[in-house]
Amino acid sequence: MRYWLHNEFLQLGAEKMAKSAGGAPRLADLTEAGYHPMAYRLFLLGGHYRSQLDFNTAAVEAAQATLRRLVARIQPLRPLPAVETLAEATRRAQGDPAAMRLLDTIDAAIAADLSTPRILAALQDALREPALTPDGLRTVVAAADALLGLGLAVLDPKDLEQRRALGDLSAEERRAISELVADRTQARKERDWARADQIRAQLDELGVTITDTPEGPVWQLR
Q1: Domain coordinates of the chain in residue numbers?
Q2: Which of 28, 32, 83, 151 has the fewest CB atoms nearer than 10 Å to its CB?
Q3: What gap in Å lies between CA 15 and CA 40, rounded to an integer?
């Protein structure tokens, strides 16, 4: 069974962030600034849903760095097993006392009014626990991620590399990129595919990813 919960308010300094006041960040703003959506999720999971969190760039950057370390540590363990229930996790962990202990810790954390910070702590403990067997570690990681929803089984480390933000570009760089995007759009209209591909290659060298949509091309830095 899945539940939807309303998180406590985010704070910006001493002020409550509210959409109506124009102070709430959009996920699109964070991704445009180079943060992975799961980094923001990890930032939120680091506090109890009943507690207010202070939103700031340093906190999201720290969450992204933590997520990057988690993925780098977990990647060699893939593929992770599909673990959706405590019974399934327990069955897989039979014969591994350290894994059973950590699964009990995770179960106690989720039962304690959805204490996601304690689940994150148990996940970190698991990655440092020398007594865990490889299969036991995979099971504990999969069980924790089934609750946290961070996508640790599939996240690509490259996706967590900090991208340049659009605000880092000079006016000249923005203008040059916009002109290339416009030139490519015109080449596509004229069905000059070779020219369009050449411009895409130029944009790629500049670290620009372009996506064609029904509303027109959309570009972002990587």
Answers
A1: 10-74, 77-158, 166-221
A2: 28
A3: 20
